[in-house]
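INTERNAL AUDIT FORM
Audit reference: QA-55
Scope: verify that the stored structure record matches its stored sequence.
Auditor: D.O.
Record contents follow.
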Amino acid sequence: MIERPHYLDMLKPWKDKDVIKVITGVRRCGKSTLMELWKRYLQEQEGIDARHIIHINLELLENEPLLEYHALHNEILSRCADDAMHYVLIDEIQNVPDFQKAVDSLYVRPNIDLYITGSNANLLGGTLATLLSGRYTEISMLPLSFAEYLTTPTNTGMSQQRRWSNYIHDGSFPAVNELDGNDNLIHDYLDGVLNTILIKDVSQRINANASLLRTLVVYLYDNIGNLTTPRNIANTLTSMGTKVSTPTVSAYLEALESAFVLYSADRYDVKGKRILKREKKYYAVDMGLRRILCSNNVRDTGRILENIVYLELLRRDKEVFVGQGPTGEIDFVTNGPQGRRYWQVCESVNNPETLERELSSFSSIRDNYPKTLITLDDVRPTSHDGIQQVYALDWLAAGK
């Protein structure tokens, strides 16, 4: 079991607080493992009796009878031994139709501290959001960060560069670490994960065309980091022989983001301090998934680095935008606990002209918020008139 201290630390302050803890993230990113880690923490560190921890994974066949909200609700109440606090952990609750009714009833009971996980952002949409307005906190979970990946047993004893190569090749899903670098097994596992997501979390929910859905994912993964719109995507796919309308692309994009296959970054007008809604950049949840879908682009290291930096910034700062300055684009603008920051990402700036180009992206920004250039050049942290240049692998290794 891979430790996930970042997410465990996010849960700890919410123990016994009068809110539902909702953990969301792509399938197989480690939500169930986090629940196991939380159980262990409650027992070993908090001294909670095992009788007062109720953990139900709704993906297990033996729990199929509980895929009805009355049955789930009654099962949990029957296992509440006394009036002491009971910690109720429910995995993949979106598998239960009308689960909101069970959740709402469990929440109001004074002896239940409720934790639920789900693989779709719509878990917090519609009825549940209305029922629980102000009564839940969401913890958004991603597959392994590079820092987490470095701590796994299969990656000890290797150079940092070798581990980086494995990370961008095999991907960040925790179970991939158990496949001993076997390309065939990794390919089959990741393809199975993707198919499950596309069928269960997208196609069945919005009645989507599975073939078109996969074509769209391939196109977007092939073009990570490009500004685009649903209209542009529809026109491009149509010109390539896959006829699709703009409304269909918009609906599919929303569903893919809800299933955490895709993440998007809006443009942010640095001078006007407003979000520009028209164009977005899209990023992949995992580089292993991208590799099996877009084998022709496995060596576009610059885009891969940009994607991984984007995901790391999401872990650290939650809000990540593409910056639009008066004279050009800034790769990322973040608004996090430490305030606003600006980021440029480039594979290498060993060429003086490339360095000048990357630094010039910051030149039109007149405020004093920190500015950082992240590259794969293995150099010590360097300052260029206040702009910090850092080595990507060290920066990522120090992350969440």
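Auditor finding: record pair retrieved intact. The mean pLDDT is 93.
Action required: none
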